[in-house]
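FAQ: What does the model actually see?

It sees only this:
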Amino acid sequence: MGCRSLDTAVAKLGGHRLDTGSMTMATEHLTDALVRRLPAPERSNKITYDDTVKGFGCRVTANGHKAFVLTYTTRAGRQGRYTIGGADRWTATDARRRAKELKAEIDAGGDPVADLQAERGAPTVAALIARFREEHFPRLRSSSAEDYERMIRCHVLPHFGEHKKVTEIAFADCDALHRKITTRAKHPYRANRVLALLSKMFALAIRWGWRTDNPCKGVERNVEHNRERYLTGDEQARLNRALAEADRDVADVIRLLLLTGARRGEVLAMKWADLDITEGVWRKPPTTSKTKKVNEVPLSPPAQQILAARYVDGAEFVFPGNGAKRHVVNVHRAFRRLCKAAGITKLRIHDLRHQFASELVSAGFSLPMIGSLLGHRNPATTNRYSHLYKDVQRQAVERVGAAVMNAGKPAAEPVPLKRGR
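And it is asked to produce this:
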């Protein structure tokens, strides 16, 4: 069968589409000199096939572009034409060698055109992020979704780009991003959070059939230590003075964090429907609570007073937002200004939660009680405050010691008070 007849037969068989409008000529031994002399056809393209490697040829288009190609039939009977590369970049010898390699792959059951099409249609990083947002974000608390979005925008996209294929990302790429955030940005804990986000994304990619392994596996995470920062009595006094002069909304947020031990996102998303100011109860909904279940906590009289003063009939949120934001979502800058005014350094908003716990420990309350007020899912999380019990424990053993040593001794005689004349 002639070469042109072959092209027509391939098209009828429904294999990978061949250019049936191309013209062919007798086979010759392709050399660089011969390729340079090949004339351009008046229309479409013309292929000159090699006389040593079956299916290997040089295609010349009407505008004079020349490229080496391989026409083949797979073991399953699919037929196609693979473009090896332009004659301006490939020599005839190198192209012939590549054609032999492709034919070996085809004989083993491969299909280079189908592989190329699959690679071009493979999901990109942008597609992975889009599906991750669509399917995983609804399961997250709003604060977690916002934090994920920041990590994607600030770290994941700038590092990988939108168009990189999901299957192309390797261990070295993930390790490089983790090291970059750790060393350049000097945020070792943030680097761990970004790595955890990436690992979750690739775990879902495996479930979706987009790749077969997780490139984050094996990346060594930075060592983390539980941060222990508490306000001294003097710092608490200075903070109170700064709060008295601060913006009311910011001051009320900070005071409620100190008085309830709640998480920042829980206070900012606080709704009037979840509060009973008269009874002094706050029923944290599962959508804002990290435990993902309703957590009912009591409110102290100072917290009740703050909320009562803020009440607006018909309002949904205690701290309503501006524009499209339904409630206030960020007070970090305001908190930094507040700390600066109070002369307090190295204090995070989350440390106010630790401060609440330390006050409970100082008052002698048990770890289970503290855990219930903080909404901890795991008792081990509350155990981080156990070291604060040293003073309370000392008072307890001193009390026992005094009771033991004074057992059987007569009680001290009361000393009469002298009345003034």
